[in-house]
Amino acid sequence: MNKINSLLDAYGESHKNATNKLIHWICVPAIFFSIVGLVSIIPFPMELFIYKGINVNWALIALVLVLIYYVSLSFPLAVGMFLFSVVCIFLCSKINLLSAPLWIYLAIFAASWVFQFIGHNIEGKKPSFLKDIQFLLIGPAWLMHFILKKLNIPV
User: Fold this and answer.
1) Alpha-carbon span 140 to 128, nearest angstrom
2) Ranges of each domain in the chain
3) N or C: where does the chain have the smaller number of CB atoms within 10 Å of the terminal CB?
4) Which of 115, 96, 101 is nearest to 30 (CA)?
5) What's the CA dihedral at 113, 114, 118, 123 to 10 degrees?
6) Which pLDDT tens digits describe the chain residue by residue (155 residues)?
7) How many other C-beta atoms lie within 10 A of the C-beta of residue 127?
8) Hey, how many other C-beta atoms are within 10 angstroms of the C-beta on 99?
């Protein structure tokens, strides 16, 4: 068994309850999005532009590093996470124009984690990341692997 399948199986061990899975389908992407948003509002030392309208910020740099990790695990998974990351960056660019993006991201982050812990309480198992921090990145990948499976794309 390759590394990604081993990680997905290990993550899946504490995510078998239907209610917990549903909560994860909503909250894991919301947490990922809120973290992208929070990182995107950290002041960047200079105004750089890669392409008209796309500016370099800490979130973009962090996502490149995260995507490198995903590529090391599975190229199809990395492509799926890249597409989701693009959506997150786009939505954050719109929210960042509002007067209080920090509070929006914090509210999404906090509410999502509350529900995640409720889900794990229902499941009766601790969150996987308490055993291994890399499971914070495997959670989104675990959901993406189900999407890829539906599209008949092997991970």
Assistant:
1) 13
2) 4-8+17-150
3) N
4) 115
5) 10
6) 699 999 999 999 899 999 999 999 999 999 999 999 999 999 877 665 555 566 778 999 999 999 999 999 999 999 999 999 999 999 999 999 998 999 999 999 999 999 999 999 999 998 888 888 889 999 999 999 999 999 999 98
7) 18
8) 6
Taking the whole predicted model, whether its pTM rises above 0.85 is answered as yes
79-85 contacts, C-beta under 8 A, 24 or more apart = 80/144, 80/147, 80/148, 81/140, 81/141, 81/144, 84/29, 84/32, 84/140, 84/144, 85/36
First to last CA, the chain: 12
